[in-house]
Amino acid sequence: MAARTHQQMVFINLAVKDIELSKKFFGEVGYELNPQFSDDETACVAVSDSIVLMLLQEEKFARFTVKPVADATRSTEALICLSAGSRRQVDELVDRALSAGGSPAAEPSEMGFMYGRSFLDPDGHHFEVMWMDENAVQGC
């Protein structure tokens, strides 16, 4: 009998200045908050079955690292790229983020077989949202 494959998950931990503002923002973008792993310093945001944002108030985030906490409004700490099922889904997600208080991070990217847009959350974390024609791209 073949061994079962473990579905690996990705937990992206981000420092935020105002946990309540972050909860409101990501809720308005359309993601669900998992109350079991959320409290007054933490928000557990389910992006998909395998991707979770762990938003930690800066003071709590600092307890997990010996390095200074980055200020995402002043420097880029990471580019978080999320896939979408279509061009329309790219636009819908980014439009919701902008309506919820996010800001554009860059101009839309049009490459024929790939389309993307981006936004910054209220803390300046950079999110890319991308659609790729699976028929045009092999091996990614």
Describe this structure in words.
This protein is α+β, with helices and mostly antiparallel strands and 140 residues long. It has helices at 19-29, 58-62, 87-99; strands at 10-16, 32-33, 42-46, 51-57, 79-83, 103-104, 109-110, 114-120, 126-132. It has a single domain, classed as 2,3-Dihydroxybiphenyl 1,2-Dioxygenase, domain 1, CATH 3.10.180.10. The protein has three helices and nine strands, in the order E-H-E-E-E-H-E-H-E-E-E-E. The strands form two sheets. Strands 5, 6, 7, 8 and 9 form a five-stranded mixed β-sheet that branches. Helix 1 runs antiparallel to helix 3 (87-99). The protein starts with 9 loop residues before the first strand and ends in an 8-residue tail after the last strand. The mean pLDDT is 92.
Write a compact overview of the structure shown.
Pfam families: Ble-like_N. By secondary structure, this protein is α+β, with helices and mostly antiparallel strands. The chain is 21% helix and 31% strand.
CATH topology: 2,3-Dihydroxybiphenyl 1,2-Dioxygenase, domain 1
How far is the first residue's CA from the last residue's CA?
A: 29 Å
Question: Averaged pLDDT, please?
Answer: 92
How much strand?
25-35%
Q: Compute the gyration radius: what is it?
A: 16 Å
Name the CATH architecture: Roll
- State the fourth-level CATH superfamily: 2,3-Dihydroxybiphenyl 1,2-Dioxygenase, domain 1
Instruction: Give helix and strand order, one letter per element, not per position.
Output: EHEEEHEHEEEE
**Class of secondary structure makeup:** alpha+beta
What best-fitting shape do the alpha-carbon axes yield?
A: globular
Note poorly predicted spans.
Answer: none
How many E-type strands?
Answer: 9
Number of domains: 1
Pfam families: Ble-like_N
Domain VOC: 8-132
Protein name: VOC family protein
